Amino acid sequence: MSIQEITFEAAAPDKPISDDVVTATLMEMELVDNQFEPDRKQIRFRWQVNGGEDDGRKLASWANHVPLTPKAKLRGVIEALLGRQLRDGETPPKSTELIGRQARLVVDPVYSASGTLANKVTDVRPLRGGRAPEVVEEIPL
Questions:
Q1: CA-CA distance, 1 to 8, in Å (whole number)?
Q2: Using an 8 Å Cβ cutoff, are 59 and 47 in contact?
């Protein structure tokens, strides 16, 4: 009986996001099937980290495509991107109006059952201080 030598490749090192809260720009939103509830849809948000050690890294998050009730996760994401709360009865913004906006993402490293590392976005928060006000007109002093 002969024994053949097998060469094993080292796995690429897992690299979690370096900070637990990062600033990111919303690059894309897509309506996708919900893998946990086949009769429902989800919105997949694709983000790009801005600044710091993780500048340029891509992240994704999901929220159920549901009515924008006060407790809906989707509403929280939209409000974070707007930098303010939606008023009762307010017409929500179009998805295209949200692309390019920034938010702070809370990111936790999680491992799947197979040991694969994923950076899970657990919360989307507004930028500190909310959205910058628009300059309507400069008034000379």
A1: 22
A2: yes
